[in-house]
TrEMBL record:
Keyword Transcription (UniProt): yes
Domain RNA polymerase sigma-70 region: 52-99
Protein name from the UniProt record: RNA polymerase subunit sigma-24
Domain of life: Bacteria
InterPro entries: RNA_pol_sigma-70-like, RNA_pol_sigma-70_dom, RNA_pol_sigma70_r2, RNA_pol_sigma70_r4_t2, RNA_pol_sigma_r2, RNA_pol_sigma_r3/r4-like, WH-like_DNA-bd_sf
Amino acid sequence: MTGDGNTSTFHDPQLLARLVEGAQCGDALAMDELLGVLAPYVGRICGPVALQDGADAAQETLIAVFRSIRQLKEPAALFGWVRAIAVREALKFARRRRRQPTVSMEGEEVPASGEIHLASDIADALHRLTPEHRAVLMLRHAEGLSEQEVSELLEIPVGTVRSRLFRARRSFRSAWG
């Protein structure tokens, strides 16, 4: 599993499998606990890609998981399956936002006082990237996926992943500097 979950459930494959199986059988408590485990993970994926729409993309992801949990054949594949849904939803929101005029970022979570400048610089640099570039950066560097895994997840050739990574890194550095 990728990431560092906020609960011990995240690290217990047997308990996680029981929650998935319970949710698939209609157990509302199992589904609620499963969504609670997945919410922070989904947020970490959607936020960097969908930016100010990250919370909405995360919510849509969790709704999709809720509606489609019965389609998951192997509980051990849960996080990869959820990652694919989260990236798809985050890209959908980011592309929609790109077609709209820029809107104020009111209501976003405010970082701790010592981190405000750094967070602002990072957010500014990320805003300057296309959603596709944010997605490959996040999947490669935040999620730790290989270029091949990113290629499979986004359903694009490895060469495209490499060129997007190159451009995204260059654009990020340029915006950062």
